[in-house]
């Protein structure tokens, strides 16, 4: 028989506690029976998804006054029964008495994926069968927006709510999904996923307190203790990565500051394993914190998808075995530099590094123009370089380039995209390199 430890953890900033079962504890823990390579992944809706929906609505209804709404499912994971063969393993001990836990529980490796699969189906029914447009979900929170003043009466709570929100509650009632009145919120400004959203000014704001909490957590993580050895468990790495990912909703250009953090977690499965904090991780998280401290904490919701023809300036770049170059047709100007020796790591590619450096160099030059371009497009014949710059993700060997790229973008406000061009069409930059 298995009996997992039971404990409590703080429930956000509510001052309440949440009961958790640690199914990772012990040599033969329940979570150890779930192979890591079977873990699923669900892309949760976030502020970026909400922003895209708001932008699409604004294109059609520019002057609409909007409200944001949010509805919370009560008990969430506990609504879902587990397979009977798994239930008999979920034994908890309270006051010496054994109890079989028949429901999905926080602490199970698959719990979030199980609930997300269920909630995904509910949202699909809401959007496809009930016609509730632009409805999103983040775990147990359903959220969206509606026109101000377009309301319906919800009799069980004796309240008027946005029409879409009431239709969602009607669906939950039809499906038997419980909820509480105090968790059904709406307003011209509303906190969604811990961030303050204003759909009329089209901006997202992080509070000073939440930002200060994250800064303190990162600094404690990378601070060198008295014994000089900085180590944290894989669980603590996961926790910090999740927290940093959350703040990317407001500061998306900070993503390169997490490159080494993910590299340290890669391939590791033991949640209690101690992982050393190396100098590269300290440097990147220090960069992350530095920008967190100085940024204004407001993100304007604007489209990140625009075409090359909409750019104010277009530059072509290339690199070869002997040099790198970039060329601006608008200025009939090109720049060239011979390659220099550099330290290499295993799996590091010289040509990829210098292709990426050529793009970064073009951005650096464009940022010195007076005035700098509002939108900049850089063409390169390297698919990897295009992906690296548009996703802000790369291997640690190339991440220093991305860090500098994002430094420039945050300092200047330039909107930047990289596009691919066939090598045979990249004539001038190719000749210069």
Automatic annotation (TrEMBL):
Molecular functions per Gene Ontology: nucleic acid binding
Protein name: DNA/RNA polymerase
SUPFAM superfamilies linked to this entry: DNA/RNA polymerases (SSF56672)
Domain of life: Eukaryota
InterPro entries: DNA/RNA_pol_sf, Hepadnavirus_pol/RT, RNaseH_sf
């Amino acid at each position: 028989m298995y009996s997992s430890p039971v404990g409590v953890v703080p429930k956000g900033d509510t001052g309440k506690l949440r009961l958790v079962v640690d199914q990772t504890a012990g040599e033969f823990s329940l979570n150890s029976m779930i192979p890591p390579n079977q873990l699923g992944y669900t892309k949760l809706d976030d502020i970026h998804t909400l922003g895209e929906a708001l932008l699409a609505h604004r294109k059609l209804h520019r002057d609409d006054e909007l409200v944001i709404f949010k509805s919370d499912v009560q008990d969430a994971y506990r609504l879902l029964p587990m397979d009977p063969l798994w239930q008999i393993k979920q034994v908890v001990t309270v006051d010496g008495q054994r109890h079989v836990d028949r429901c999905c529980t926080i602490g199970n490796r698959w719990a979030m994926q199980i609930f997300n699969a269920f909630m995904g189906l509910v949202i699909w029914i809401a959007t496809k069968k009930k016609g509730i447009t632009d409805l999103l979900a983040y775990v147990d929170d359903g959220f969206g927006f509606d026109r101000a003043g377009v309301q319906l009466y919800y009799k069980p709570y004796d309240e008027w709510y946005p029409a879409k929100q009431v239709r969602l509650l009607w669906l939950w009632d039809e499906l038997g999904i419980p909820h509480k009145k105090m968790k059904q919120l709406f307003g011209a400004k509303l906190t969604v996923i811990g961030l303050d959203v204003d759909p009329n000014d089209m901006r997202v704001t992080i509070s000073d307190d939440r930002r200060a909490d994250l800064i303190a957590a990162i600094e404690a993580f990378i601070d060198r203790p008295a014994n000089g050895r900085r180590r944290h468990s894989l669980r603590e790495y996961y926790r910090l990565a999740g927290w940093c990912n959350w703040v990317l909703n407001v500061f998306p250009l900070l993503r390169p500051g997490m490159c080494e953090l993910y590299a340290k977690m890669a391939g590791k499965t033991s949640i209690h394993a101690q992982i050393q904090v190396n100098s590269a991780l300290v440097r990147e998280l220090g960069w992350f914190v530095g920008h967190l401290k100085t940024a204004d904490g407001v993100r304007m919701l604007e489209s990140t998808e625009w075409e090359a023809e909409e750019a104010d300036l277009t530059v072509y770049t290339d690199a070869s075995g002997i040099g790198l170059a970039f060329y601006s047709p608008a200025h009939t100007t090109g720049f060239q530099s011979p390659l220099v020796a550099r330290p290499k790591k295993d799996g590091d590619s010289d040509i990829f590094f210098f292709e990426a450096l050529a793009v970064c160099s073009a951005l650096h030059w464009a940022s010195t123009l007076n005035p700098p371009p509002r939108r900049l497009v850089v063409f390169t014949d390297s698919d990897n370089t295009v992906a690296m710059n548009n996703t802000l993700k790369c291997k640690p060997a190339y991440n220093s380039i991305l860090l500098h790229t994002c430094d420039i973008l945050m300092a200047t406000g330039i909107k930047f995209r990289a596009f691919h061009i066939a090598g045979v069409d990249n004539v001038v930059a190719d000749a210069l390199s």
